[in-house]
Design brief:
Distance between the termini: 6 Å
Radius of gyration: 23 Å
Strand order of the largest sheet: 2-5-4
Structural class: alpha+beta
Largest sheet: 3 strands, antiparallel
Number of helices: 5
Number of strands: 9
Order of helices and strands: EHEHHHEEEEHEEE
Helix content: 40-55%
Length: about 200
């Protein structure tokens, strides 16, 4: 007789993954702007939010998602590797710190020949005028002259890969701890032959 069963793993999405998906949507939104005049403050604000949220993925992963001791230990060992990766050390960590602590590392929106500015009257604005811009998102640079869209894509890929590591660890732990997955001390395959 052949018995088959389904391995049941509660697959709850990481909160850090939800945050990363929001970041991806924001980057996509920024990448689709620029053909119509966009307020300069809006573009700068989107950039600052994305940079800060990119670093927050790790904090959410640590403080919210990895709550059980096994996950905390696994994450701790992974952080030793992750925090040495180039995109983390050259962009994610330092740019968030410079933005929050010094208001540095923001976008360079003036003096860029690929950006045209227009000023229009706006009675709700602080100076009764809004500076808007037309731009090609792929030419946006930070104050260090680095193009930001490739940095965003690299940072998203960094988190994507590492969240997958955490999810794979969780799935292994769930299978290892599920008594329905074991038969006489060894993991069962998808089929169990018995007679």
């Amino acid at each position: 007789m052949i018995m088959s069963f389904i391995i049941r793993i509660e697959n709850v999405m990481l909160v850090a993954r939800q945050l990363l998906e929001l970041i991806e949507d924001m980057v996509s939104n920024l990448a689709s702007q620029g053909t119509a005049a966009v307020p300069e403050a809006s573009v700068q604000g989107q950039y600052i939010a994305i940079v800060c949220m990119l670093r927050s993925v790790g904090h959410v992963l640590e403080k919210t998602d990895c709550a059980v001791p096994e996950e905390k230990q696994f994450l701790k060992s992974k952080w030793l590797e992750w925090k040495k990766e180039h995109i983390f050390t050259s962009f994610i960590e330092p740019d968030r710190n410079r933005l929050l602590k010094e208001f540095a590392s923001r976008l360079q929106l003036r003096g860029n020949p690929d950006i045209s500015h227009i000023v229009y009257a706006d009675p709700r604005a602080r100076n009764f005028a809004t500076v808007a811009m037309n731009f090609d998102p792929d030419t946006l640079c930070d104050l260090h002259g680095r193009k930001v869209m490739p940095l965003f894509r690299s940072a998203i890929a960094f988190w994507q890969a590492h969240l997958e590591e955490i999810e794979a660890f969780r799935n292994r732990e769930a299978r290892n701890n599920d008594p329905a997955c074991h038969h006489h001390g060894r993991p069962r395959s998808g089929r169990d032959h018995g007679g």
